[in-house]
Amino acid sequence: MGDQFKGRVTKCLAPEYPNTPQGRGSEDNKFREEPMTEFAKNDRNRVRRGHNRARYDEDTVYGILDSHFLCHIAYEVDGQPQIIPTSYWREGNRLYWHGASKSRMIREVTSGKEACVTVTHLDGLVLARSAFHTSANYRSVICYGRPELVTDDAEFERQMKLFFDQLAPGRWDQLRPMAAQERKATALVVMEITDAVAKVRTGGPNEDEEDLDWPVWAGHVPITMQQRGPVGAAEGIKAALNHRLMPAYDWNNK
Ligand SMILES: Cc1cc2nc3c(=O)[nH]c(=O)nc-3n(C[C@H](O)[C@H](O)[C@H](O)COP(=O)(O)OP(=O)(O)OC[C@H]3O[C@@H](n4cnc5c(N)ncnc54)[C@H](O)[C@@H]3O)c2cc1C
């Protein structure tokens, strides 16, 4: 698969995006000089509800994808919607995930049908003075595409290393090599992202003017995902833990 995909357009930063990473830091951030690439809007990815929170640019979409590990994969089997959580990683405009070769999810998503992959970060609780305006801060992405099985062994190995680099950089090379039977039991799936969209909510509550005097606390409470200290296995440890684990979640080291 090449690096040019249908459904992506290149354009200058629009004035409504002054606070995106691309817009920051420039004296005149209304329009930046370098073009940015966006996913084209169409019937399946155009956000209607809360469209001011929609982002179609690659930097936002990829940024959200790259700072998480858990996705949900949706597909349809004989008219029945299915959704399966699993871990994933990204390379270029492609998402990858792996699973048991015999799993129904792998079989179904590689049978030529469309799938939808979603990733969500919960960034905070938004406590308004009314139930109606109580909300959450979040960054979410929805990607659409047609997954395929990766059958090439060299590509399988290269992608598994990328996956492990996301978990614990350097660990793949330290592990006992995969046995032929283990390779056979593990399937790798790739999905070119044909359409994608992100939705981002930040900040405090949006309240009705007449609620502002209501005597209850209002504001927002940031929430982050944190690693805890490692707990060694009970038996047989022969080496020290020498990786920085899951750098995407390692907020303390950013
Ligand atoms: C923790 C959390 C709490 C939320 N609380 C509320 C709430 O209280 N009320 C509310 O209305 N919404 C809430 N949302 C937003 C919610 O995810 C949806 O955006 C919204 O409900 C979708 O409305 P709709 O079906 O009319 O979407 P439409 O705008 O019709 O969706 C059209 C297309 O936009 C894209 N899209 C829609 N939602 C998202 C999304 N979240 N991320 C990426 N792409 C998207 C999809 O491609 C979809 O097909 C919350 C989200 C999160 C993560």
Q: How much is the average pLDDT? A: 88
Oligomer: single chain
CATH architecture of the largest domain: Roll
Give me the secondary-structure category: alpha+beta
Would you state the CATH class of the largest domain?
Answer: Mainly Beta
Commentary on this structure:
The protein is of the alpha+beta class and 254 residues long. The chain folds into 2 domains: 8-38, no CATH class; 50-206 and 218-224, Roll (Pnp Oxidase, Chain A), CATH 2.30.110.10. 14% of the residues lie in helices and 31% in strands. The chain has helices at residues 58-66, 104-109, 153-167, 180-185, and strands spanning 8-11, 36-39, 54-55, 70-77, 80-87, 89-91, 94-100, 115-127, 135-145, 148-149, 186-192, 195-201, 219-222. The strands form 3 sheets. Strands 3, 4, 5, 8, 9, 12 and 13 form a 7-stranded antiparallel beta sheet that branches. The protein has a 4-stranded antiparallel beta sheet with strand order 6-7-11-10. A two-stranded antiparallel ribbon has the order 1-2. The site of flavin-adenine dinucleotide (FAD) has 18 residues, from β8, β9 and β12.
